[in-house]
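During the reporting period the student researcher (J.K.) took over the structure-prediction task from the postdoctoral fellow and processed the backlog of single-chain submissions. One of the processed entries is reproduced below for the supervisory committee.
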Amino acid sequence: MGGLVYRRILVPLENSSADAAILTHVRQLAQLCQSSLLLIHVADGWAARNLKPLQLRESEEMRADREYLEHCCAQLRADGFEADSLLAGGEPAHEIAAAADRESCDLIAMAVHGHKGLQDVIYGQTANKVRHLTVVPVLMVRDPRKAVR
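J.K. obtained the following structure tokens:
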């Protein structure tokens, strides 16, 4: 590795098919570097964005997101990885960048979709914003099933 080691990798998940691509890639990297993994999902619905200011209860969607994260963590732990999960609420790019800093992550590994045209503008915004909001290196992995042809 030439001295470059990632001790803690932040992995944003979105509860979609793209998660499999990033988790497959990050498993190999974490094994090579002996890294711990922090899985994050940013719920960005109305309840998630206003949970703390309005002292709301978690929405059903947020409960499902938490269960999904915990399931992914359990699978990683069963395979010998050190893994934790974090469910955040708010604007995804800001929450991901803040978590990377707060949780002492030295790499953010995230899936990108590889859509054409307008879809790329919409779905590529989070990854692009994260790149500009953090000094932590960002690894973007395209879901091979969604590659532009």
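The committee noted the following: The helical segments are 18-33, 46-50, 60-78, 92-102, 117-123, 125-133.
J.K. will present the remaining backlog at the next meeting.
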